[in-house]
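Hi Y.,

Following your request, here is the sequence exactly as I used it, all 385 residues.
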Amino acid sequence: MASDTQKTELTSAPRWWPAWLDGSLLTLAVGSCLVVLCSTLVQVSFGAFTMSIQQAWRAVFDPIVWSNPYVLLQFFFGEGVATTVANLTGLSTASVDLSKETLIVWNIRLPRVVVGALVGMNLAVSGAIFQAVTRNELASPYILGVSSGAGLAILLTLVVFTGFSTFLPVFAALGGTTAFLVVYAIAWKNGTSPVRLVLAGVIVSTIFGSLQTAMYLLASDISVVQSAIAWTTGSLTGTDWEQVRMILPWTLFATIPLSIVASRQLNVLLLGEKTAKALGMSVERVRFALSGVAILAASAAISVAGIVGFVGLIVPHVVRNIVGSDYKRLVVGCLFAGPALMVAADVGARLALSPTQIPVGIVTGLVGGPYFLYLMRKKERLGEL
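Below is the corresponding structure, written out as tokens. Let me know if you'd prefer a different format.
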């Protein structure tokens, strides 16, 4: 006969309700969405053209925009894709008259928020995957050298191969993959350990960072140098719908589905290599496949925002403390908490020294550094998960 506790668990939720979707995860998701919403309203309310919170609210939720799928498709996917979809589905392509506030919010201010949310999502998931793959709670794209490798590839594209700027996410992924392979090769000695991986990541990040600095000497155009500096510090200044269209497909069709599908394998990896092999897992193949997902997510973020540090380290720890270590809940939690941290940090980066805008990577660094120190002081054994 079932106990009272078991009866309560069986009757407290509908049968169709996923077992992993518990109260803590729902609370995290709702709280993160509220942070993003409030940060968005603050972000879109300030700029060269001043408008009140009420005007910003009406502009963001303008019914003329939200009731017209063709207009939304134009913003998110570009006119070419919007026209193609409209022709296939019979949507109206008639032009609409938008207010000045709506045009400013949707064309200038809102894309920055969307890019920030997508970047936070990708970096958080990437960090969570790296922490499971390496069984190292210090792992992140920044610390393992992936960010510096992707950043170097982007600088090479901007400075040397300027004609290939359209393929920035691809080059960023190649650079991140190369850096991670170098880190893994340095750390390998009849296997790897958390300490060796972190030390190898620091070495590779330092070398690649020096190469990034050297790239400035090859740039004769001062605008290219300024753009390169923005990449290396992490910035969302000047982002528009072009950056949204660059990162959105990678996020929708790679980061989100692949990370959720891989959550079971991530949980098995956390049991240890011997246990994973006993369960029939090809550990090395799975490890490298999952690393590829993490590298792709990090590279997509870096291709539009540059090197933003500590997001991939902080968010998985915060989410793990709230929802537990099960990777189904952890990955979903990161998909909500990552955007909340990134969008909120960008509000601080934009308004802290207004009218001067500082790179968002500086804000995440100021938050992440003390948190990293807190982890060191709190845990007796820092490293393995």
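Confidence is low (pLDDT under 50) at residues 1-11.

Thanks again,
Q.
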